[in-house]
Amino acid sequence: MNGTDKGRAAIKTQFLTTKEKFHELLDSGGKGPNDDKASDDAAPKETAEDSLEEPQEKKFKVDPDEQERTEKRNSKRMRGQNKSRPHMKPTSYDNRRLCPSIIQERETKCVYGDKCKFIHDVAEYMALKPADVGEHCYLYDTFGKCHYGLSCRFARAHISADLKNLANEERVKAMEGRTPVRNSLDKDLQWRLRKKVVPFTASDAYMKTVFKGGHKAGEGWKKAVTAENGKVSQENLALVKTIGPLTDADVIKLRQCEKKQCGNLPFRRICKRFGADITCGEMAMCTNLLQGQSSEWALLKRHESEDLFGVQVEGCFPDTMTRCAELLNNKIDVDFVDINSGCPIDLVYKKGGGCGLMTRTNKFEQIIRGMNSVLDVPLTVKIRTGVQEKANIAHKLIPEMKKWGVSMITLHGRSREQRYTKSADWDYINTCSQLASPIPLFGNGDILSYYDAMKARETEVSGVMLARGALIKPWVFTEIKERRDWDISSSERLDVLRDFTHYGLEHWGSDTQGLEKTRNFLLEWLSFMCRYIPVGLLEQVPQRINERPPYYMGRDYLESLMASQHVGDWIKISEMLLGPVPKNFNFLPKHKANAYK
């Protein structure tokens, strides 16, 4: 292939194939054509992965005004690509679970007694429990004891003949005093957050200065809303019953499935192992943190290997963002706090958060100054070039943010409207880095090889941030550090995935619920990794992030399997590492990229 086809990667001719031959190879399990003929007469049984359909194309969002002009006014199209996606909770794969009092081998009986919804009969549970996945338990080998006991899917490694959980005392003693994961939410703090009894002294003091002359929060926010909208009169305000200031909690209802699921702690451990210098947690909603939501606080967890770690928060009002910053400053261990003012998600943007902050400079300034006033660690900001495709505004914001007190800026080289359909504008990033000096500015966008990183460093940026590139090939950090192309083999890539599953079982648990959650995150990651093209197969090095890989045969069966963009083939890979999927298993990838268009 000569690479003249726009948007298609140039692969050596001897590796190119057709879609039919590609899937024929995968369906045969790597056997030759002669082997396939022998099995033609046998009717193959349909497996769980074979029954899965190819993911549907992304459902593009329909503008409401445009929709009204269509003929089908009565039928509403679902907005977004995840609305019809099946959501299977990990708990649905393990309906009959063993009582925690038995798993943890407590001396006292279950406090719920006969009302407990879990199984108390060990023999009954063992008869219902799915078969073990492997001979060795990673948690037992690493920590000397697996706290999931009988419920562990690798239980045979540490369960005695009389169904007692064994412990390697020497290993347990060696692990004493070590805290692999920090920043967990304790029950006392969660209770106080839910009861709203946590004091925010510094935040309240700052908000008084915002409201000019110490006005009450409710009155101040009413005037602010009046000034912004220009439509609400004081007479109308008097007729409206209010419960206080307008906050993020009033306007943002962001579902868990709308968030990215790939920048989790186990994946960050993989990146650290390959040489990433700085890691940052996934975007957390400030109001959910202030409400003590366990799922949101899980995004703040930090592994001991993350020597330079920050958390990323999102919000659109200064009171909640400042309180959130004060809470994080007092309760968790981080090296910096990052404001995500580059999130393009509709549910965030339309309420004034994410990219919306870039056009709400007054609120943006109040948020940055407020968070800076209560933080003891640096405050950083992530932005995009702008909101509209041909109307960059980052160069206007950056000089202002320098005055507001940000410590570092990360600039993604695309606007909100562009998403990933166009290449990142590194010339504009370079211009902005000059405006930001002496404040460091990190560039972000389209980094997939050390060539891309070196080209980016030719600009005046202080560093580069990787997102999609790290998901497609996390060893890109090693390539950048060593300034070389790494023609990584399929077996080495499988070892990387195996390490991820080990870290996932450690993080989410080795019981059925934790194992299936690990599988889900693994499959989400494989939806990115399948886009990687091995260096030895490329006609032109390096691979570009927006080039679509054509159908090709790998140098071995596993390499071909990893190149498949079919969900069923990803599940085959997961079964190599985590055992067979449950009977009711269902998965469709969240990310259906439109970057190739």
Automatic annotation (TrEMBL):
All copies of the C3H1-type domain together span 93-123, 136-161
**Biological-process GO terms, alphabetical:** mRNA processing
Q: What are the UniProt keywords, alphabetically?
A: Flavoprotein, FMN, Metal-binding, mRNA processing, NAD, NADP, Oxidoreductase, Repeat, tRNA processing, Zinc, Zinc-finger
Task: Kindly list the ranges of residues that form C3H1-type zinc fingers according to the record.
Answer: 93-123, 136-161
Give the EC number(s) listed in the UniProt record. Answer: 1.3.1.-
Q: Which reaction does it catalyse?
A: a 5,6-dihydrouridine in mRNA + NADP(+) = a uridine in mRNA + NADPH + H(+); 5,6-dihydrouridine(47) in tRNA + NADP(+) = uridine(47) in tRNA + NADPH + H(+); 5,6-dihydrouridine(47) in tRNA + NAD(+) = uridine(47) in tRNA + NADH + H(+); a 5,6-dihydrouridine in mRNA + NAD(+) = a uridine in mRNA + NADH + H(+)
Ranges of biased composition (kind: Basic residues): 74-88
According to its UniProt record, which cofactors does this protein need? Answer: FMN
Q: What is its EC class? A: oxidoreductase
Superkingdom in the source lineage: Eukaryota
Q: Where is this region: Disordered?
A: 1-95
Q: In what ranges is there compositional bias, type Basic and acidic residues? A: 33-48, 55-73
The Gene Ontology terms for molecular function here are:
flavin adenine dinucleotide binding; RNA binding; tRNA-dihydrouridine47 synthase activity; zinc ion binding
Keyword Hydrolase, does the record have it? no
Explain the purpose of this protein: Catalyzes the synthesis of dihydrouridine, a modified base, in various RNAs, such as tRNAs, mRNAs and some long non-coding RNAs (lncRNAs). Mainly modifies the uridine in position 47 (U47) in the D-loop of most cytoplasmic tRNAs. Also able to mediate the formation of dihydrouridine in some mRNAs, thereby regulating their translation.
Q: Which family does it belong to?
A: Belongs to the dus family. Dus3 subfamily.
Name of this chain's protein: tRNA-dihydrouridine(47) synthase [NAD(P)(+)]
Q: Name the lineage.
A: Eukaryota, Metazoa, Chordata, Craniata, Vertebrata
